[in-house]
Amino acid sequence: MKIIYSDAHKGHAGALEMRGEAFVPMAECPERMEVILLALADAGLRDVHAPKAHGLAEAARIHAPDFLTFLETAYPLWEKRHGPSRAVFARTFGMRGMAQKPQMDNIDAMLSAFTFDIFSPFVRGTWDAIRSALDVTLTAAEMVQQGTREAFALCRPPGHHASGDLAGGYCYLNNAAIAAQMFRDQGAARVAILDIDYHHGNGTQRIFYDRDDVLFISLHGRPEEEYPFLLGFGDETGAGRGEGFNLNLPMPPGTRIDTYLHALQAAAARVRAYAPDVLVLSLGVDTFDGDPVGGFCLQTPDYLRLGQVIAGLGLPTLFVMEGGYAIAPLGQNVTNVLTGYLQG
Ligand SMILES: [Zn+2]
What we know:
Blueprint: E1 2-4, E2 16-19, E3 22-25, H1 31-42, E4 48-49, H2 57-60, H3 65-82, H4 107-114, H5 126-145, E5 150-153, H6 175-185, E6 191-195, H7 202-208, E7 214-221, E8 246-251, H8 257-274, E9 278-283, H9 302-311, E10 317-321, H10 327-343
Parallel strand pairs: 1-4, 1-5, 5-10, 6-7, 6-9, 7-8, 9-10
Antiparallel strand pairs: 2-3
Helix pairs in contact: 1-10, 3-4, 5-6, 8-9, 9-10
């Protein structure tokens, strides 16, 4: 298993998020990568490669130019206008009926236009981390494109909540979507994205909703109870040419492995019927029992079984790291998906 990783994410640290009535350290933190690397090494998964530097051309196939400018300039513009901060997020959100075209030097208006919640704060190192996640993902994707059977893009920040011009939910660039588009641009006829993060991949869904060349499947907590609340329902099946190429499999709070595996097998059947050239696996393990932002009850050994089902698809597979915030078991949970896959 090729693992692509860079330390360049580490400056995206110290950010604060709201939990209840308090500001607390953001659950999406640099330690996540450290515990995953340690657990991978313990399991003998040590084939770690540095990413190659990429420009923004591949990201621009998915994301709007003004949005990319926003991500790059958000923190410097904020600091210039308001001073240093560990909680740079919008104070207002673009409301319906407003023009929603911000001046590109007005950071408050830009935050309002280009974010959808308060869970994608900017700090000084955020842009470097965003760029490193892009480099890591594209380098891993290129390995798979060139014939490597499977590769793991071990990166943060995650991406699946980000759409073409909106950041949110710890996500800025949609790494998995950018990789899927790269596969298409490099000649893949069909790409499947399977999102097993606890939360619905609203950004990925939105990006590919009207397309039939990228199948999107998400297993997640029901939007009746769970973030992002207004998307991820079972009757969202795609639009136009994309009708039938979006599959949401929401599950209730407290879901355990038997129910989860049933949904995963349904997802696998849909992937098989689609017969993609390559699979992009949005790998979140915040389905773990006790994850601070999750609501399912998967146990650490269960992740082996997830990996085995994914392996059963028999496809070239790019794993892209998404969520998972229970730090102590995080490394083993991720490792189990990969070792289950390799054994499967
Ligand atoms: Zn998540």
